[in-house]
Predict the structure.
Amino acid sequence: MMLRRAFHTLPLRALPVVTALLVLSACSQADTPPAPLAPAALASVDPRPGVPREKLARAIDALFAEGAPGETRALLVLSGGRIIAERYGYGYNKQTPLVSWSMAKTITAVMIGQLVSDGRLRLDETAPVPAWQRPGDPRGEITLRQLLQMRSGLRHSEASDPVYESDEVRMLFLDGRDDMAAWAEAQPLEAEPGRKFEYSSATTVILADLAARSLTESRDPAIRRRVVTEYLRTRLLEPLGMRSVKLEFDAAGTLIGSSLIHATARDWAKFGEFLRNGGSVRGAQVVPRGWIEFMARPSPRNPGYGAQLWINRPQVDSGTALFPGAPASVISCVGHLGQYVAVSPSQKLTVVRLGKTDGADRNALEARIADIFALFAAK
């Protein structure tokens, strides 16, 4: 400000001198080297990450440094299945289980795929929800495919204001909490099934209920918990080596498959690698490859969403992709407050970010995750 005022009071013959000083000042600022990295930032990156090590360390540090968008509690980068960067916030480490929030939806969808493969459920038949089978009930037309793609047509309002009136909050914590599936399945239609995309945690709880019903006819909560836990443990979690996983169930014995699965960052990375490899682990196909391809295929009502899985393409509501500049083939498990397992098959890359970031900072957070993808070329 002082320099600007002085500029206006100088005689014309002094202008060349002032101009030269301003140019020199700008050049000096441009040539200023970046601030040195904190030791923890560089130490978090493998000595040979396959990209410039300091650039990767700086991109990761941007998620932890002062002024970062929210609090990052865990960050992992895997290239070709190998951990090349791993960093934790204060109070967290590789043994700390961290909540999934809506990343759980993708695990639920994989379980549904296994049950379809087993012949217990059928993708394009109407969903076998007893409450919808009464003659004349239009909800009886909803298919499993439509539930998976968030286009059931059931009335729902996710993340509405005030928060206590938001449907997922009511289901998880208020009037629906003891029997979440019954609460979700009681909702009326607000659109013809298949015609409208409506992101809904209640829809995924319905899927979790269908999984339990396909495994047991019992309504005993303890039996429902046991059979679903055993199925997930033997068919998915143990094959992937996800030993830290903790599942939460409601009082009716329904897996809270929309929101509440806990695991360490390394185990979330194993799930990401499983998705990147098309549903296989060490050459063994845990779920049919075609099911993962279906999950990663844009649904008819939202090009940025597949089947309980986000796709890095323009979203139907915002018109923008989650990770600007990252490949369109990136697929992501995404959870409340900034939980991400983001996978780029073309780059053989998996990025896990877990933490706490409010909605206002989510775009900035996603842009910084995109900066990590930008360092890697397609392989």
Confidence is low (pLDDT under 50) at residues 1-28. The chain has two domains: 35-97+312-379, 100-263. The longest strand covers residues 71-79. The radius of gyration is 24 Å.
